[in-house]
Amino acid sequence: MNPPAEATAPRPLRRVVVTGSAGFIGSHLSRALLAAGVTVVGVDRRNPTSDPVAAANLAELGGFPRHIPVTVDLLDCPLEPLLLDTDAVFHLAGLPGVRRSWGVGFDAYVSANVQATQRVMDAATRLRVPRVVLASSSSVYGATSGAPSTEADTPRPASPYAVTKLAAEHLCLAQAARPDSATTVAVLRYFTVYGPRQRNDMLIHRALTAVLHQVPLRVFGDGRQRRDFTYVDDVVRATIAAATVPTGNAVINVGAGASATVSDVLTVAQRLTGQPVPVIPSAARAGDVPGTLAETARARQLLGWKPEVSLEAGIGRQLRHLQALRPHAVR
Ligand code: NAD
Q: The domain containing residue 52 runs over which residues?
């Protein structure tokens, strides 16, 4: 039997909640939604009046009358008023980064990635929000053989961060599978996202800053680690498609489907600027896997999505953004 027409028609978005909206990816996502005429309730615990990174991320959203920024912590704020009458929740809030999740840092990861997600998903289900899109991570796959990771692979998280992201996935899927649930969830496994305003702990940002200012870049490991670098605009398109295309409950990789080494990134940075990248070799960090690579067939099939921005073009855009911020740096 064919599903009813309303189950397969794209869902229009009128009003949505974006959590983590003052972050790197959340701010790009919010901008794209606002530009499409959607009302965005942007939730983040970082306050742009006291946090310069949040202020820079949110700067472009100021001109949109449909932007409703809310500075609260998802761990203790009342969620019902935020989620009322919402077509979709994009849950991007979380504590990223592998290294700091070891040791005493773990508690903060559990609260930001597990407890906050449970609260958001619980409220979304109670209020019968039709769709939740969760930002998960390729890190749930752990150390792989080098072959592309498919969504059917058994996750083997290799860091406490990755364990919390996998727990968040399962919490959302378990809530959505309850017999009384009217909420479906799309779990998106993002592969290393880059582009303008990338977090300052991430490789491409650090490499470009090093080359622009001719300050040494600490390279962890032998430089041969491979990452599936995915441009932020491509990630945003996949994320919006995951809310509008009715896929039911699904786990979907969002990656470029190609990988490059750390050394490749340095070569591109060098080629684009004409300057060498000064490097300080450092020991590999616990939890850093040798490689990530997405199998993207499911994203293509379910979301009709394919990545469009090549690594060289994407690094070029990120470089121009940094140069515009720092006009006196090397060109
Ligand atoms: P980011 O740190 O720039 O943004 C995350 C935002 O979430 C921050 O602004 C932070 O203040 C907010 N936040 C965290 N806990 C909160 C809470 N309890 N209440 C309210 N706000 C809270 O990170 P990002 O790189 O934009 O990543 C966004 C999401 O995507 C994260 O969930 C991350 O795990 C996931 N992800 C990112 C990448 C990547 O390459 N950047 C890759 C895989 C997955």
A: 15-193+230-255+293-300
CB of 108 shorter than 6 A to ligand 1 = no
Residue of the CA atom closest to atom 43 of ligand 1: 137
Residue 186 belongs to domain with CATH number: 3.40.50.720
SS (H, E, C) 115-157: HHHHHHHHHHHHCCCCEEEEEEEHHHHCCCCCCCECCCCCCCC
Distance 275 CA to ligand 1 centre (A): 32
Tokens representing 301 are: 């099939």
Q: Give the residue whose CA is nearest to atom 36 of ligand 1.
A: 137
Structural domain count, the chain: 1
264-291 pLDDT, tens digit each: 999 999 999 999 999 999 998 888 888 9
